[in-house]
Every structure is written in C-alpha cells, then in structure tokens.
Amino acid sequence: MDKKSVLLTGASGTVGFEVLKQLLNIPNLAITIFDKKTKNSIKKLDGFKDKVELIYGDITNKNDVKKIAANKDYVIHLAAIIPPVADDFPEPAKKVNTEGTRNLVEMLEKHSPNCFFIYSSSISVYGDRLVNPYISVTDPLTPSPGDEYALTKIASEEIVQQSKLDWTIFRLAAIMGGHKMSKLMFHQPLNTSLEIATPQDTARAFVKTIGKQDALSKRIFNLGGGESCRIDYEGFLERSFEIFGLGELSFPENAFAEKNFHCGFYEDGDDLENILHFRSHSLKDYFEIEAEKVSSLKKIGASLFRKPIKYYLLKQSEPLEAFKNNDKKLKEQFFY
Where is the NAD-dependent epimerase/dehydratase domain (predicted)? Predict the structure, then answer.
C-alpha cells in the first residue's frame, strides 16, 4: 500500500488524543498533528515528536494553517472551543470553530485539493429533543437558545459542504470519558434521553475512515454508541455519583433545567457502524472504565466530603439561581 498522509487537528483533546494513539497503530501512515501550544498540549503531545510531525500553531492564523496544508490525503478536523467556554465566549468560539474551519478548508483546497476531509460536528445542532428523542440526520437543525457552540458547528458544516474538497461529517453524540463536571451538568433536564459513546469508540470511527472514502463521501452521519449505550440522564448521573462515592443524586427542586438542552437517541446511528464497525463499548463498559479510574482512597475521600462537594456543584446551577433571583429571561430559557 502506498504511504498515506493524515493531518489531525485538536490532538490534545479527549477524542483527538485517542485518535492519535490509534493512528500510530496504522502502518505506512505519515501523521501530522496540529494544536495550539498550551501547557496541556505540550504535556500530552511532546512525547510523540519522534513518531509524528508535531506543529503548534493557531488555526485562526492563515499563515500557521498554510504550514500544515500541503500533500495531505486525509484530514481529521477536531480542533474546537467546546462548551461551556464556547457558550460563555461566543466570539472566540466563532473565530476558532467556524473561521478556523474556513481557514483550513481554503488552504487545503489550494494545497491538498484531493484530500478527504473528515469533520467532527455535534448532536447539539438538533437542539431540544425531549418530546421526540429519536434523531435522524435529515431532521431540522434547530439549536437551543444560548447554544453558541451549536451555531458554530452548523456554520462550519456549511463551509465543509460548500467546499471543493471531498468530505464527510460525523455528528457526535454525548462523548463520555474524561469529562469534568461543570455548570452544564444542570443545563440538561433529568428526563433527557441520552445516548453516549466513549472516546475510544469515537476515535475508532475517525481512524477507520482511512480507506473508506467511497462509502462516506459527501455524506453526513450520526455517531453514537447505539442501543447498548442508551439511558436517561437521571439514571446516568445516579450511577456516576455512586461510582465516585457521592451517594444519592440529592439536589433540590429547580436545580436542573426542564428544557432547551440537547441529546437523544440516534435512530440512524447504525448507518455509520455498518460501514466502519467502530463500536466496542456498551454503557456497562463505560461505567466499568470510569470505576477503574477511581481509587479506593478517592472514593472514600468523596464519601467523607460529599456534602461540601455537592454544595459546590449546586452553586454552579444556573437554573436554580435563575429561579431564586426570579430572572425572567433565564427562567424562560430553562423552565416551562
């Protein structure tokens, strides 16, 4: 097989790092990784300098992007500012997520016009699906109010689809693993239908696009873990709290939003699985993986300090604050 070259952006992220590790297992592959230079990216990526071409730069800078655009066969574009930062700072998010994608596409059109562009989008583009949780790629894109991240993804999808490149787009379900608890925990209604995928399975899908261009070309897919990875959000949190030693999910009324988030079940998720065969984890596997990360000492510590930990978490609940302060605008966003 002729040696192929692949460009991976966002390699220091949760999914990106898994993609990098899996790409290294493919023979005859020249790998270029592009990431912003931060303490985290240096710590995670510098150890791979002898195995890949590592280039640090800014995706919003066309000169930086030009350095990575030549002679690429495959491009896996994962670089993005994600929530909650993307929603709190929409302008930088738009600059990185949307204009950064435009920069990359335009440079590839000039310097690697025959490359296959694999773009990572999000289930957030479908918006609130509490009433109708079964989602297909043909459904309208109606992001929830305040979901700036989803808007950047929709705009980026349009850039990709209108480009001169060959492409495919994967709309990722809830990717669970390596997550830090944030205020978004309370934005999601407890009765949300939740389909997850692990970072490992998600990465496997991106890596397995190599050699599958004909089956994926000019198509959009929903990427999720399938039926074995489905649960409601309340059940997911209950099991997570148990694993981390935090006891019962005991938060007051109005702590969680009642509407205007996203997530659901991918009705057509098997379409991508039937092409790439990337799934290996079930929900049971996910919880076992997470449980292995929690040492007995950490679990005991969390159990001892569960009240202050829960108090700290609750202080991040914007729905509860909106209710307490009678903030009509936010109450309208979060509650019926």
Answer: 6-183
**What pTM value is reported for the model?**
0.95
Which residues sit opposite 239 in a β-bridge? none
For the record, the structure tokens of 176 come out as 């669970």
- What would the DSSP string read from start to end of 106-132? HHHHHH-TTPEEEEEEEGGGG---SS-
Largest Cα–Cα distance of the chain, in whole Å? 65
Look at domain 4-182+196-228 and name its CATH class. alpha beta
CB 263 within 8 A of CB 122: no
Instruction: Name the CA dihedral angle for 154, 158, 159, 165, rounded to a multiple of 10 degrees.
Output: 130
Domain boundary assignment for the chain: 4-182+196-228
Give the Cα separation of 72 and 202 in Å (integer): 22
pLDDT at 1 over 70: no
Q: Characterize the bridge pairing of strands 193-197 and 230-232.
A: antiparallel
